[in-house]
Amino acid sequence: MIVLHYTGMPDGQGALDRLRSPDAKVSCHYLVDEDGTIYRLVDEDKRAWHAGKSRWRGMTDVNSASVGIEIVNPGHEFGYREFPDEQIASLIPLVADIKERHGIGRGNVVGHSDVAPARKEDPGELFPWHALAKRRLALPSPTRDLIDPYWTDAGFLLALERFGYDVTDEKKAVIAFQRRFRPDLIDGVIDGECRAKLLALLLPRPQ
Q: What digits encode the pLDDT tens for the residues 116-129?
């Protein structure tokens, strides 16, 4: 899988220094700076320590099965902002290349908050998933012919787990789903739109 992160630090140089420091005990395969510069930090056939305690579609050792890409952005703690066009223009071919070479399905191109909903918010609601989705590099947020299946909340959480999320922290799992697929309203409340989007993502089956 491919896991996208934001750096969550005040500036790119600080993030680069930390990711290259043995003392930090954190690493990633690639760092994409705001000007579009790509730094290759760890070979793809080596484990990088980027995902932490995480889970996706039954995989609990995400670091062993993923390429981690850190995207320079101060994050929610230091002044979260939109990702520059130059940055996304560099990220898209990088994701496309990794995805093709490793045969990664769109459903396994995820954000850190998708694989660790109880702990993480990145790359966040401002990340342009639609730019990846329209190039078939990530799953799109369903918008057409939505049908509310009227699941109970427990039914929704069961479906969310089937889709791939860790639902141990139920509200944070819902928030992570909303952050990714319904970023205009992130309230942790399971409503008809959330149910309808999840149904559309599950049919005919997860990709």
A: 999 999 999 999 99
Q: Strand, coil or helix: what is 129?
A: helix
Cβ contact 147:139 at 8 Å: no
> Which residues are catalytically annotated?
70
**Looking at the DSSP assignment, which residues form a beta bridge with residue 2?**
67, 109
Where does residue 101 rank: exposed (0-12), middle (13-18), buried (19+ CB within 10 A)?
exposed
Length of the chain as a residue count? 207
Which residues, 6+ apart, have CB-to-CB distance to 5 below 8 Å? 28, 50, 68, 69, 70, 71, 111, 112, 122, 123
The model's pLDDT over 144-194, given as tens digits with 9 standing for 90+, comes to 999 999 999 999 999 999 999 999 999 999 999 999 999 999 999 999 999
Give the separation between CA 140 and CA 123, rounded to whole angstroms: 16
Q: How many angstroms separate the CA atoms of 121 and 111, rounded?
A: 9
